[in-house]
Amino acid sequence: MKIAFLASRAPVAQTARATLIGRYGDSEPEDADVVVALGGDGFMLQTLHDMVDLCVPVYGMNRGTIGFLMNDYGESDLIERLEAAEQEVIHPLSMQAQCRDGSSHHALAINEISLLRAGPQAAKLRILVDGRQRLEELVCDGALVATPAGSTAYNYSAHGPILPIGADVLALTPIAAFRPRRWRGALLPSEAKVRFEVQEGDKRPVMAHADSQSFTDIDWVEIKIERKIGHKILFDPDHGLEERLISEQFA
Q: Which among 26, 31, 33, 41 is annotated as catalytic?
């Protein structure tokens, strides 16, 4: 089995990479049967984005702080673990954003796409789903759209629901909603196209985030699932995303 070992810049991850290469060798990602990512969830997301054009699965081992997308670290039985690993395929969100200066941007996000206020005043957002207005005005610190795989991240911190990995839905979750004060968000079909339009953007500026990419002074954003891209993630048996999402709800 040809393995490509990638590691975050953290010393503990770099040390682990050197140890594993000494034991199992190392291949270039484009020549590998599997990529082993050493770090935390942030590095796992970065690796998945970097591997988007390669049809190679990624197996993460936790050398970071959180590790929700990672397996436990171990050195002695890696080949056996890789052979027994179960694969999950995750489709990312696609974002098309237009800024107030007329510039356009495209980005992909595995966990969520969020809009956040970029000034002292709350954001005002108009929300449309599949071209139909669903909320004329949401006054808030922001809002996000999350995939099932990302529903335990920022979405959960914003009091959004945890979604089973097999659920064919997206979570639309407000962040510190002021008006309507009691609105807690919505569950949408996974094929829905969500559009946020920024109101009064000159005095209530808004920025958009798609994983590690950020864009400022947003005018509008459209979000949908990108079915043409499938990220392959490997998990140890009985420790896959479905089990982790269920366990998180009883933590």
A: 41
